[in-house]
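Q: We require from you a single protein entry containing the residue sequence and its fold in token form, and nothing else.
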Amino acid sequence: MVAVAVADDYERNQLIDQVLAVFNSPDRVVRINTFEFTTVREALETASLFGGETIVVLDEADKLLKADVTKLQTLFPVTFGHLIVGAKGKSPLLGVMEHVFDLLEEKPWDKEKRLHELVHTKLRSANVSISADATHLFFDRLDKDASVLENELDKLLCYIGDKKHIDADDVLAITSSTHTATTWHLAEEIVWEKKLSEAVDETNFHMVTAAVRSQLQLGLKIASLLERNAPQGEWSEALPRVFAKTLEKRTAQAARFGSRYFSRGLIALFDMELRSRTGSSEFEGLFDWFRSSLSSYAPR
């Protein structure tokens, strides 16, 4: 008896399919859409027409009423057939399953790490490498959603064709940014205007952090080019996708702030992320601290 507890429908179904792959017997799988006691019992106790025990899949166990759970518990332990249960929320049924894969309380940084591994695993399977800049840009542009990431990765792999390496230009050329305009506007206000116009909580903390990092890196590139008096060709290479009006505005601001402002901002951002991953859950307070630190680095 296996339970897969994941809030996201796409990820839950993907994981259920991975469990089913272990049996390697798709003909024996029966999916039923009711937890009615008699239906579940009959499905488990009926041998597969293709031989062997039936593999019964039931999803959304979190919708079960307590009385239904009590009835179903009389079937456990299952002596014939195999039961796989999916849940997008907490359910008493999870407590009586033999094996439970539970991501309901997964921390945002753990999810991000898992999604990074998902992407890199898929790339390794395709025998394709990706630069560090491209990886960073890919995850900064996209919501932390497995279906979105896999879809955009498939587009990337088709786009590069026979190439065996993905660089930042490939990501910019083909991926569609799914971050909301509000997130990027908020990041711009924090970095360039030194403001914070709305609360940052656990829901949008990591998305805003990624957008802020992108703005700080943009500022550092521009300020560094200015300070080195870099030729125009180097500007075009370093900032291939920045619109002319945006670049004009940001160049004036970066000249006033200087590279030290952006580099120290990146260090403070790293410190804030580290604090968020080592016990602090005061996300709004962490961003207030970061904003205050960033403001102190700017020239008066």
